[in-house]
């Protein structure tokens, strides 16, 4: 190598070092550079208290599995969607709000906000982790890694208190439905958004009764939901049914059947519904730049002694009459992981 070539090579290496140093420093102070993905070939995982983010990664990968995919910043229902846009009125719950407009209006009159926090919205690149409830989280020591993501999504009534080392203690949003609302809102991070997935009109009615302190009507639930619920209405959101449609039709490949039609079916075969976890992953793939998952997967059908959740002792036997196709969902998660649309969070220490 002659002197001129060596000098040019040295200058190039110095320039690359400076670029990488700037990117890493920006991550340490909480900034996402649009060109930060240049370093992903050399650096993966957390830097300081943040997680490196590759802009548009999910947007690039998700269309390989989700037909007619489109990213969106609109996750939650707002009144405008259903009272000034007739095209949204074609479906009843759980795929739309046809026939439930009055209930929806009353709920949104109390829980009027449909936005995400400004500090999340302004990020140029968002990393998300969907924390499942699986037993694989037990003794995983993933808590610190989970906390380092911009958005931490939790499911149903899975507890945080007492399990922080394995599941972290940061919660950006918690997706739930009435029968799974047995978590204490006062134990949540005060900034946590509580996101209702309404599967049936009774779910909206339940929330309306709590918000207005109306007489509780307990009919219509497979499990009696909480009768008292001390929740800040400004932290309530209603998940847009678009994501249930995307999960059901494009991932599970199921023709959607509204609840009213399900009740009229002559055969007694239970319909198949996506799990809260798969709905959450679908939502994350439409909003986040990078999607990680932890705590997903069920024990084998013959592993009857292994708990299905990290916080309780129920086993796979309890899923025998489930309306979820956990085998199909497992295949979908593998497919998403194989193409890099989602990444399983692992503790490499």
Report a brief summary of the structure:
With 349 residues, the chain is of the alpha/beta class. Helices cover 32% and strands 9% of the residues.
Task: Explain the overall architecture.
The chain is of the alpha/beta class and 349 residues long. The protein has a single domain, classed as sialyltransferase cstii, chain A (Alpha-Beta Complex), CATH 3.90.1480. The chain has twelve helices and nine strands. The protein has a seven-stranded parallel sheet. Strand 1 and strand 2 form a beta hairpin. The radius of gyration is 22 Å and the shape is globular. The two termini are 40 Å apart. Residues 21-44 have low confidence and may be disordered.
Overall pLDDT? 84
CATH homologous superfamily descriptor: Glycosyl transferase family 29
The appropriate CATH architecture is Alpha-Beta Complex
Strand tally: 9
Helix share bin: 25-40%
Output the radius of gyration: 22 Å
Tell me the number of structural domains.
1
The chain-level structural class is alpha/beta
SSE arrangement, N to C: HEEHHHHEHEHEEHEHHHEHE
What's the level 1 CATH class? Answer: Alpha Beta
* Overall 3D form: globular
């Amino acid at each position: 190598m002659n002197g001129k070539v060596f000098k040019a090579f040295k200058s190039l290496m110095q320039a690359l070092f400076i670029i990488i140093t700037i990117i890493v420093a920006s991550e340490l102070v909480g900034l996402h550079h649009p060109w930060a993905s240049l370093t992903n070939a050399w650096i993966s995982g957390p830097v300081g208290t943040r997680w490196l983010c590759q802009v548009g990664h999910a947007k690039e990968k998700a269309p390989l599995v989700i037909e007619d995919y489109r990213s969106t910043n609109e996750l939650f229902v707002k009144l405008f969607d259903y009272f000034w846009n007739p095209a949204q009125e074609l479906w009843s719950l759980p795929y739309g709000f046809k026939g439930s407009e009055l209930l929806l209006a009353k709920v949104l009159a109390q829980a009027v906000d449909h936005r995400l926090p400004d500090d999340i919205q302004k990020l140029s690149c968002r990393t998300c982790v969907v924390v499942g409830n699986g037993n694989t989280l037990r003794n995983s020591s993933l808590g610190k890694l989970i906390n380092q993501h911009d958005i931490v999504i939790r499911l149903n009534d899975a507890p945080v208190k007492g399990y922080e080392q394995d599941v972290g203690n940061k919660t950006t949003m918690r997706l739930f439905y009435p029968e799974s609302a047995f978590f204490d809102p006062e134990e949540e991070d005060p900034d946590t958004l509580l996101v209702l997935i309404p599967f049936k009109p009774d779910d909206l009615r339940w929330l309306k009764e709590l918000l207005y302190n109306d007489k509780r009507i307990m009919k219509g639930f497979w499990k009696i939901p909480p009768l008292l619920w001390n929740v800040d209405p400004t932290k309530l959101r209603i998940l847009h049914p678009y994501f249930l449609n995307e999960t059901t039709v494009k991932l599970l490949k199921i023709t959607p059947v509204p609840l009213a039609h399900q009740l009229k079916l002559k055969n007694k075969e239970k319909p198949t519904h996506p799990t809260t976890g798969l709905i959450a992953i679908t939502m994350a793939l439409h909003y986040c730049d990078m999607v990680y998952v932890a705590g997903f997967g069920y024990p084998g059908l013959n592993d009857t002694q292994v708990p299905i959740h990290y916080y309780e002792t129920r086993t796979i036997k309890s899923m025998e009459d489930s309306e979820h196709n956990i085998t199909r969902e497992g295949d979908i998660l593998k497919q998403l992981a194989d193409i890099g649309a989602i990444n399983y969070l692992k503790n490499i220490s």
